[in-house]
TrEMBL record:
A Gene Ontology BP annotation from the UniProt entry: rRNA base methylation
Example of a GO MF term: rRNA (uridine-N3-)-methyltransferase activity
Protein name (database record): 25S rRNA (uridine-N(3))-methyltransferase BMT5-like domain-containing protein
PANTHER family the record matches: PHENYLALANYL-TRNA SYNTHETASE, PROTEIN, PUTATIVE (DUF2431)-RELATED
Gene Ontology, cellular component aspect: cytoplasm
InterPro entries assigned to the protein according to its UniProt record, in alphabetical order: BMT5-like, SAM-dependent_MTases_sf
Residue ranges occupied by any 25S rRNA (uridine-N(3))-methyltransferase BMT5-like domain in the UniProt entry: 16-181
Top-rank taxon: Eukaryota
Pfam families cross-referenced by the UniProt entry: BMT5-like (PF10354)
Signal peptide span: none
Length: 207
């Protein structure tokens, strides 16, 4: 079987996607590979909520499932390592694009920032448990103030994860990907990506 690639990702990798909105990122990868049998795509929303919140969710999910993707709803990033469908699997790439704890205050509010940091910390604690030995965790995140205050690299270091790289995120590399706000009455609206990077971490062999 021929390997197919898109940006950092390969059809030969077992890929877990966390916190998907309308599943357009997952579908972008699947279409690039020509298959999604190597992918598990998850969201916090129930399937019913997805239908209500995102205009194209059903279309995207149907396309993913035709391509062989395993779609799992109601997956909490803080508990995913114990999920019955995930806890016995290991992944080469675990991807979380634009993690966000919800709009409970201004983005520069200290309390809001701590909520975001706790979300990312809990995700990392779980992701490292279901990562292959040479696998990587990828978090795509805005890098300008106040988002820089989340200090993604420090959070990963605190979980004994090794920083292996940071690359500028170019949305144009992912045709069809429509990033979503994911919370509130405007959850199906996109947002300006601006300056952001994909941060990459691996297991530390001290862990």
């Amino acid at each position: 079987m021929e390997e197919k690639r898109i940006s950092h990702y390969s059809s030969f990798q077992k890929i877990l996607l966390v916190g998907e909105g309308d599943f357009s990122f997952s579908l972008c990868l699947a279409r690039a590979f020509g298959t999604a049998t190597n992918m598990v795509a998850t969201s916090l929303d129930s399937r019913g909520s997805l239908m209500v919140n995102y205009a194209r969710a059903l279309e995207n999910l149907n396309a993913l499932e035709v391509l062989g993707c395993t779609v799992v709803n109601e997956v909490d990033a803080h508990k995913m390592a114990e999920h019955p469908l995930l806890k016995h699997q290991k992944f080469d790439r675990i991807i979380y694009n634009f993690p966000h704890a919800g709009f409970l205050g201004r983005e520069d509010n200290v309390f809001q920032i701590e909520l975001h940091k706790n979300l990312v910390r809990g995700f990392l604690q779980n992701a490292k448990r279901i990562l292959t030995i040479f696998g990587e965790i990828h978090i795509t995140h805005k890098t300008k103030h106040p988002y820089s205050l989340w200090d993604i690299k420090m959070l990963a270091s605190g979980e004994n994860l090794k920083f292996v790289g940071e690359e500028e995120f170019d949305k144009d590399l992912y045709p069809g990907y429509d990033n979503k706000r994911g919370d509130g009455s405007r959850c199906d609206h996109s947002f300006i990506v601006g300056e952001c990077s994909t941060f990459m971490f691996s297991r530390s062999f001290l862990y």
